[in-house]
Amino acid sequence: MLNFLFKKEHRLETLFFGYLENLAKTQEHFLKAINLCLQKGQCDDFVFLIKQTHKYESRADDFRDEINELMYSRALIPEMREDIMNLLETVDRIPGTMEMILNIMYTQKLTIPEFLAAETKDLIRISIESCDLMGRQIEVMFKRKEGVRALMAIIDQNETHCDHIEQQMIIRLFESDLDPFAKLQLKELIIAMGEISDQSDRVSKRVNILTMKRRV
After folding, report:
1. What is the distance between the alpha carbons of residues 74 and 185, in angstroms, rounded to a whole number?
2. What was the pLDDT predicted at 7?
3. Residue 2: what pLDDT?
4. Are 134 and 148 in contact (CB under 8 A)?
5. What is the spatial distance between Cα 32 and Cα 53, in angstroms, rounded to a whole number?
6. Is the Cα torsion angle 100, 103, 108, 109 positive or negative in sign?
């Protein structure tokens, strides 16, 4: 029985790490799409990168479904199953947010104004860094190593920094001479971009709680 449970837990770790590797691919194509749009505007390569982001976001769904199926097969104790499934659900909002941001830009034909380009790069860069740190934090949790709280502190600092950048971008946006409707569209986009770091922070705090529960 113990050997059976060990195999299930090992399978869970393998699937979750696969999910995180796929998330990194989603982040990679999302970042390339944003940077390309800032440099050249919307073009064929931008559309290609949107499709690649969607491809990896869809693969994330496949990993999520397989992990949930494993959980329903009674791997781990009931409380831990619920914790892992809730954690996955929270993490899974991140690739969905990335795809949503690109779709907003594409469908609404949005171009980020030059006066917001530098701040956009900073906001996305720090957000992606938080995603990477979050992935490391989850790996540390599964491997029962030290460092979860230290990583959480950095992610929390990043989230605060991103909130500040987001606020300044919106202030500058509404101080500009852009068309009022364009301002509202871009505000929606900026808030969606800021959600990446917010969501990484939520995941990070959940991982910290799970780690503490494992020690009790």
Report:
1. 46
2. 64
3. 33
4. no
5. 10
6. positive
Mapped onto helix, strand or coil, the DSSP state of residue 165 is helix
**Helical residues (DSSP H) of the chain, grouped into ranges:** 2-40, 44-72, 78-91, 93-107, 117-142, 148-175, 180-215
Which residues neighbour 200 within 8 Å (Cβ) at sequence distance 6 or greater?
Answer: 94, 127, 130, 131, 133, 134, 155, 158, 159
Residues contacting residue 29 through CB under 8 Å, at least 6 positions apart: 49, 52, 53, 56
Q: Which domains does the chain have, with CATH numbers?
A: 2-215 (1.20.58.220)
Average pLDDT over the chain, rounded to whole? Answer: 90
pTM for this entry:
0.90
Q: What is the Cβ-side half-sphere exposure of residue 50, based on CA atoms within 13 angstroms?
A: 15
Q: What is the pLDDT of residues 73-113, one digit of tens each?
A: 765 566 677 888 889 999 999 999 999 999 999 999 998 99
- Give the pLDDT confidence score for residue 74 in this predicted structure: 63
Q: What angle do CA 123, 128, 131 make, to 5 degrees?
A: 130
pLDDT band at 13 (very low <50, low <70, confident <90, very high): confident
Distance CA 140, CA 152 (A): 12
